[in-house]
Amino acid sequence: STSTYEEINFLKNSDLKSINLAELSKEERYSIWKRIPKCELHCHLDLCFTSDFFLKCVKKFNLEKDLSDEEILDSYLFTKKGKSLSEFVEKALRVSSIYKDYETLEELAYSATIEKYKEGVIIMEFRYSPTFVSSKHNLDVELIHKAFVKGINKAVEKVNNKIHVGLICIGDTGHPLADIKKSAEFCVKYKKDFIGFDHGGYEVNLEKYKDIFNYLTENGIPLSIHAGEDITLPNLDTLYTVINILKVKRIGHGIRVSESKELINLVKEKDLILEINPISNDLLSNVKSMNTHPIRYLYDEGVKVSINSDDPGMFLAEITDNYEELYKHLNFTLEEFMQMNKWAVEKSFVDEKIKSDVLKKYF
Ligand code: MCF
Ligand code: ZN
Question: What pLDDT digit, counting tens, does each position of 78-126 carry?
Fold first, then answer.
């Protein structure tokens, strides 16, 4: 069957020398970012929507009567520089008003997957928190999960399996129904659908939950956990906990690893990858500016890093926007972008067969 979408002519290593980014317009650069064969490890499915999708939901559910479109986006989303991670977590909670029925969730997962495909993502790891999605309207977690899986599967079929999608389950902190143990049990119950487990929301020291994380690891579920993100924390204990006690394979954000030579060496020794989300870090004020974002220092120190979008719906910024920022402010090259995607594929939790096929075909 013929696909509705234009095929992407993905870049190969042998194409890179002939491209001079400095002489391209912004539009031409974006067409290059799209052609990089991308593996995205960190994106919250529940916060992955376009502004049109979000506005459609607000109208469908009649959530705002007196606001213009612009005012709706402004009051719910996080598109301008904010104060902190805490401010973000509180704002994200308001967005959960759109998780009102299962058709909406299926549609969300379908369009999120199609958007990633159109942006040139080949391996996509989405994560979501079942308790977060159920919190506002008391939706059933089993039905939430079925709706998400159905939406993703329909989209993957629509694009003739040209994108590989994996799902990570999140247990979080920061909303009324948050329950890490319940999320962990849910993850094990749907082990056939989940490739990993995470903790998100407020950044807390997870040591007291170590038995729950051990239980996941014993069930063969690898961990990728948010840590070393919140710049307001007084120390780096959260990072030491996820690395030494919970034994993560990957770290969500991990930008604060850059504050300690000891942590840099630990991350390298354990061969962990950091899932960096440049635009997210900037908007949440976890970095001073994009020019000084630690991804450059970490990369140059030999730490494995990858490029991710985190919450395209909250930031109204896609994965290619994150590449543009890294190019403009930190002089990342196409060779470096390819290298980071190769690491991301190697560290992905999707099937080994998919990974080796992708590595052979594109890297
Ligand atoms: O990575 C960002 C910021 N750091 C921590 N948590 C989250 C991020 N994006 C979403 N989250 C949280 C969100 O607050 O993940 C959970 C929620 O608790 C599920 S995704 C909506
Ligand atoms: Zn995140």
Answer: 999 999 999 999 999 999 999 999 999 999 999 999 999 999 999 999 9
Round to whole Å and give the CA distance between 268 and 272.
6
The token pair at 310 is 């985190």
pLDDT single digits (tens) 345-354: 999 999 999 9
> Cβ(49)–Cβ(41) under 8 Å?
no
Look at strands 38-44 and 273-276 and give their pairing.
unpaired
Confidence check: pLDDT of 201 > 60: yes
Q: Is the CB of 34 under 6 A from ligand 1?
A: no
Is residue 29 in contact with ligand 1, taking CB distance under 6 Å?
Answer: no
Strand (E) positions, the chain? 38-44, 121-128, 164-173, 194-201, 224-227, 250-253, 273-276, 304-307
Sketch the domain layout of the chain as residue ranges: 43-362
Alpha carbon nearest to ligand 1 atom 14, residue:
201
Q: Which is the CATH superfamily of the domain at 43-362? A: Metal-dependent hydrolases (3.20.20.140)
Cβ of residue 129 lying under 6 Å from some atom of ligand 1? yes
pTM, whole model, 2 decimals?
A: 0.98
Query: How far is 169 from 34, CA to CA, in rounded Å?
Result: 27
Q: Which is nearest to 198 in space by CA: 216, 219, 211?
A: 216
Ligand 1 and 85: CB distance under 6 A: yes
| Spatial strand order in the sheet of 121-128 | 38-44, 121-128, 164-173, 194-201
- Residue located via tokens 């403009």: 328
Alpha-carbon distance of 166 to 172, in angstroms, equals: 19
Given a cut of 70, whether residue 330 has pLDDT beyond it is: yes
CB contact at 8 A, 89 and 174: yes
Q: Is the CB of 136 under 6 A from ligand 1?
A: no
Mean pLDDT, rounded, for 16-43: 98
Parallel/antiparallel/unpaired status of strands 273-276 and 304-307: parallel
C-alpha of residue 72 to centroid of ligand 2, in Å: 23
pLDDT value, residue 3: 62
Alpha carbon nearest to ligand 1 atom 4, residue: 201
CA dist 148 and 126 (Å) reads 10
